[in-house]
Amino acid sequence: MSGRQRTLFQTWGSSVSRSVGTPSCSSGTERPQACSEARLSAAAASQPESDDDVLLVAVYEAERQLSLENGGFCTSAGALWIYPTNYPVRDYQLRISRTALFCNTLVCLPTGLGKTFIAAVVMYNFYRWFPSGKVVFMAPTKPLVTQQIEACYQVMGIPQSHMAEMTGSTQAFTRKEIWCSKRVLFLTPQIMVNDLTRGACPAADIKCLVVDEAHKALGNYAYCQVVRELVKYTNHFRILALSATPGSDMKAVQQVITNLLIGQIELHSEDSPDILPYSHERRVEKLVVPLGEKLVSIQKTYIQILETFASSLIQKNVLMKRDIPNLTKYQIILARDQFRKNPSPNIVGKQQGIIEGEFAICISLYHGYELLQQMGMRSLYFFLCGIMDGTKGMTRAKNELSRNEDFMKLYNHLESIFAHMCDTSTSDVSAIQKGDKYKKFFYSHPKLKKLEEVVVEHFRSWNAQNISEKKFGETRVMIFSSFRDSVQEIAEMFLQHQPIIRVMTFVGHASGKSMKGFTQKEQLEVVKRFRDGGYNTLVSTCVGEEGLDIGEVDLIICFDAQKSPIRLIQRMGRTGRKRQGRIVVILAEGREERTYNQSQSNKRNIYKAISGNRHVLHFYQGSPRMVPDGINPELHKMFITHGVYKPKKPSRNVQRNSSLFSCRNGK
What helix, strand, coil percent values describe the chain, rounded to 5? Predict the structure, then answer.
């Protein structure tokens, strides 16, 4: 590294690193220095003794003995905390980093404003302060784990030889070795849970735990299990939780705080004064689309079918709400749960089973009703098709629906329109990829027309501006829809507009009837192609909402409304990072519009409640300081240099005709 400034730990810690072997650890409950002792023994056994080596071991042993009194804290390194100047210094990031060093903190920042940067700073300082400790970064998915290890390296330059990535594909015995030989670990929470329960993870060594997408820490999610397991061994570790939003409501926010032992919250919205200088404007437009005559006609028929099955539950007094057109799937699930907890003494044996069956049919039918209103006739047909062809395993529902004349008329009508698409969606999109000009696309919801209009106009105006001003590069569009059938339908619609629009789908790893899932390798490949300009339009399910670095996106379109404000905040974070962004929310008139308005109201109420009166939340009072009494690390700003990050061996460019749209012109 001649001619380049080195980090403090690289300077005084490099000799120790060179002397270190790669031993195995016997259990996760060993005292923190067990692995270090093994490394020094291995070094002594494997290398010829020299004066330098003897001195090095003696100095290291002396420092280790002194640090035992302070839980492994190195007083020489702990005199300072390092903040990087190789990125522009932002006051809010500096302040939050300082806070997070000394208290368990939940950091809520809009996407793109440096949560990972703050995490890298905190991790690096704990890595320095506790030379024999472990620093752990947890992310909910494998692609996020892969992304974050590189992002943290680019900020603080922790040597790659000290870091490791662990996922489900890493074998258990290999992970045990990694826990001993590496100091900074990036992994999914389920791997952490497994290794803690097996004793492979040296729990007492962990000094800093970073939790990405922390709003997921509800109920028995793996994040919660990790913290519960860790506190069985030690309370001496820092927690830093990261999220674009604290939760969907105040109850959820409190759960996250309780489950992750949070002592303080750093909450900033797009409108926060300290954030405004660094964020680009995001224009949010709400477009409300009438259902149209065709859809209204289908809806009326469907409501008649709902009345047939819901009325039976209403008559038996197990479903209290009688406004059938405005019932929701969630309300029926709640009614079923209530029936199970407090069944009427008059309902016993066979009758109880009949009611359970009626609830199951109603829940499925109301799910279809929501699909019809939000996504359109095609999504409804594919859902009903799964019931009627037996793939959903709902034999009783199939038999009951087959006997309903209104249902069969509707089903046969939808089948006459969409049956030819089932085979294409399931197995072979070669005809679609070639852009079959002879087969006219069927718009199964008026929202599709509006979506097409918005996207086509965006590319036209962008290209016109490009020609006249010659200062813009490529533009990218990202479209979100919650259901895979809808994602497929939207992508097929835009294939009509090649080569101006080069479209690609992006879904999770689980496979469904109409679309096979993407492996994590394929997900990363799609993200890379989109970021590099191979595609300019990405149609994604919720898998594209969280965390992944997809590059600059100028237009985000939400094709459906979400009850939880978290989902919309995550989607909005995909744009406005480096230049002005635009978000368009396309809503069906009626229920979907009301759902969106309620979601926005919930978001405002959460931020207002937390910002205005933090006493409404109960914070963890036992957050450890980690730094021994009498030591107050001083801020030291430093230009950090690092080498070139060497990723794992790149995966092959895998493309599957069943799920990946291939745009030849975009390659």
Answer: 50, 10, 35
Instruction: List pLDDT tens digits, range 46-62.
Output: 454 556 666 666 666 65
Distance CA 595, CA 600 (A): 9
Is the Cβ–Cβ distance between 91 and 268 less than 8 Å? no
Q: What's the confidence (pLDDT) of residue 209?
A: 97
Nearest to 537 by CA among 520, 554, 523, 549: 554
Distance CA 60, CA 13 (A): 10
Q: SS3 of 137, please?
A: strand
Measured distance CA(512)–CA(402) in Å, rounded? 24
Up-side HSE of residue 316: CA atoms within 13 Å toward CB?
Answer: 22
Q: For residue 629, what are the contacts with CB-CB under 8 A and spacing of at least 6?
A: none
Q: How many helices (H) and strands (E) does the chain have?
A: 22, 15
* Rg over CA atoms, the chain: 28
Element (H, E) at 624: none
Mean pLDDT of all residues in 487-501: 91
Residue 659 confidence (pLDDT): 41
Cα maximum dimension of the chain: 93
What are the residues whose beta carbons fall under 8 Å from the beta carbon of 282, sequence distance 6 or more? 270, 572, 575, 576, 580, 581, 582, 583
**Tokens encoding 162:** 């000290």
Q: Read off the pLDDT band of 601 (50, 70, 90).
A: confident
Write out pLDDT tens, residues 97-142.
999 999 999 999 887 788 999 999 999 999 999 999 999 999 988 8
In whole angstroms, give the CA distance from residue 130 to residue 132. 6
